[in-house]
Amino acid sequence: MNAAGAVIARVALDTPAGELFDYSIPASLAGTVQPGQLVTVPFGRRLVPGLVTALAESTDVPADKLRDLATVCDSIPPLDRAWLALGRFAARYYHRPLGEVLLPALPPMLRDPASWPRLAQRSHVLAYRLQEGAAADLLAALPPRAPGVRRLAEALIAHGSLDERAAVALYAQARTRLEAWCTAGWLVREQRAAALLDVRAASATPPPALHAEQCAAVEAITSATGFAPMLLHGVTGSGKTEVYLHAMAEVLARDPAAQVLMLVPEINLTPQLEARIAARFPHMPLATLHSGLAEQVRAMQWLAAHRGEARIVLGTRLAILASLPNLALILVDEEHDTSYKQQEGLRYSARDLAVWRAKQRGIPVVLGSATPSLETWWRARQGAYCTLTLRERAQADAVLPRIGLIDLNLERQRQRPLQDGLSVPLIEAMRQRLARGEQTLLFLNRRGYAPVLSCASCGWLSGCPRCSAYLVLHKPERRLRCHHCGWEERIPHHCPDCGNVDIAALGHGTQRLEERLVALFPEARIARIDADSTRRKGTAEALFEEVHAGQVDILIGTQMIAKGHDFQRVTLVGVVNPDQAMFSHDFRAAEHLFAALMQVAGRAGRAGLPGEVLIQTRYGEASALQALLRHDYDGFADAQLAERQQAGLPPFSYQALLTAEHRELAGAQAFLRAAREEALALAGDTVHILDPVPMSMVRIANRERAQMLVESDSRMALQHLLAAWMPACDRLPQRQGVRWQLEIDPLRI
Ligand SMILES: Nc1ncnc2c1ncn2[C@@H]1O[C@H](COP(=O)(O)OP(=O)(O)OP(=O)(O)O)[C@@H](O)[C@H]1O
Ligand SMILES: [Zn+2]
């Protein structure tokens, strides 16, 4: 369609009502409107942002109803076809209106027309790089309120050169502070200070020589032509990151416009990796994208990717929706990680969309993991994905850790009671590490002090008034907190039911563990990393930095510490309580437990000193634990696949989950039953529609929840049914008062 001839713009709006809206292009804007452009349009009595998806010469909207486009955003180049196609695919596959996919995929500032004019000027702040020469300028421009950065800049000037470690640390610090300035609006006023941080030029130590398996992997990635999905299956510490960096270097060198997208599962993995990439590629513009960035920063980073300026884009799952006009390679680190699945709104899998994007563009995509998801493993087993294997740890003398079980039944027989969840052998092993000056990492995936408070005389338990869950005791804050709805209250002095003052904390969380360790090892330096200890921006980074610098003897933490981090001094990993995860009805529970344990075990002994992993358990015979003792991912995965195949479960079938919530469970169930009737009328015998059931946590924030699973051996048949079924659900009278949503390929059931 020629822009000059078009009189109608088809616009996507962020609204659940309908798909696209037609607007006429007023004469004043004739010839300027293109697909992919941001616009504002009148909608009801408001002016709202929209995205032009297509132009047309005519419309079915009657002339008296047809309204004019209001404004066109000319400070942001139009989104390209590939990006619009990604949005269309996601809308179709996940069954959401296109507008509810496209607009939320943009950073919040781009959805706010008031900020459009400003965005054009600000993208250069992206640089974040401080050349030594620019440090003096920066110092002069600094507001007096930034003493930390002032010191930093002084240090930069003082140092002739920095080694990689120092450079990386400095860069990470400076980066955090720069973000704070951006938020405060300081940077924007000071154009001179905007050409920031490049501590890297001073450093850039050469990369290590790759070992043979790494070479082979890099070679396979860089010699691939067209769409090439690959599984990089490397044991923990085998140097997968080095493979990514080398492949990246090659792709970037080959084509001066090429962009590489690298996804990581956790925000707290970005600073270290960003610093490492920055040190390795001193002159390559790098953008990061994750939800922890200040709005302005995020918008600028996003635009740098969109304009093709950023050559490397590092981000969490939301980065898969970034506009990347010259995308040439996608790397998905820890591809098995469930945080690649968005849990609200558009419930996409960033890993799956990565594969789709690679296919659409005809480029390689590397899915890396020590514990691949069974979906990926199955595709690799079938030859649909090419498998690249790293069998050995990368660093000289580093071998996989020895894994042992501590049998808690035996501990009880021997009458050696646990001390706040810690067994005697684990405490002894920690004592040895302390004596040798080595680090211990303790993994307990439960934050807070104790999961519940209880009355010894009447049996009262601290339930949440709004959820079917217990209030968790947070001792330092002196609060009881619901981890599901956010409800908070003071810790009662006596039992609310019977008045008894003898109320006790049951079970253990990370805070309680920390308290006990302080008592056990008063001389040790102990740090705790969980969502509570890292609530303030920058604290997680600072804590990890202390661990890496050897200023911590014992690190306690939740899954935040369990994956991805390349700890060089940890020789003991203790798994405090894996048993709570062992009795789930979810068919993926064993897979997730195995992956979590193998990942956390993989933090031990990465740099030459022998590592040991001790797992406290009452169920040592469990197949996940037995396979773990042998470091046998392959055997475990193949056995799981055989079970799944027999039971007709994913990856041998495809699922969608319809969930409904209502003030009363009956209301949610009634909706699902009605929806089921509709589905039965539409479905052939290739799609199986299960009965609605209450969810295992039935009430959250005073709403009761039920779910219904739909499955099929054929993805096409399932998709076909959903396409016809969803509009029917929208019309059901039982939907009154019900919030419902569909999730495709659910990971937790
Ligand atoms: N060829 C090499 N020679 C020496 N050291 C290397 C080599 N490749 C990587 N390393 C080092 O080995 C360590 C582990 O590498 P990396 O963190 O990339 O492992 P990984 O495979 O990503 O592990 P995980 O899955 O546990 O996160 C790092 O300290 C890295 O610098
Ligand atoms: Zn609650």
The residue fraction in helices comes out at 25-40%
The main sheet orders its strands as 8-9-7-10-11-6-12
CATH architecture of the largest domain: 3-Layer(aba) Sandwich
Cα-atom Rg, whole angstroms?
27 Å
CATH homologous superfamily of the largest domain? Answer: P-loop containing nucleotide triphosphate hydrolases
What distance separates the N and C termini?
46 Å
Low-confidence stretches: 122-136, 159-164, 183-193, 195-203
Protein model, in words:
The longest helix is centred in the N-terminal third of the chain and has 21 residues, at 164-184. This protein folds into five domains: 8-98, GIY-YIG endonuclease; 212-266 and 316-390, Rossmann fold, CATH 3.40.50.300; 402-447 and 510-641, Rossmann fold (3-Layer(aba) Sandwich); 451-506, no CATH class; 654-744, Alpha-Beta Plaits, CATH 3.30.70. The protein is globular, with a radius of gyration of 27 Å. It has 749 residues and is α/β, with parallel strands linked by helices. It is 34% helix and 20% strand. Helix 6 (164-184) packs across helix 10 and helix 18 packs parallel to helix 19 (623-629). The protein contains 22 helices and 28 strands. It binds adenosine-5'-triphosphate and zinc ion (ZN).
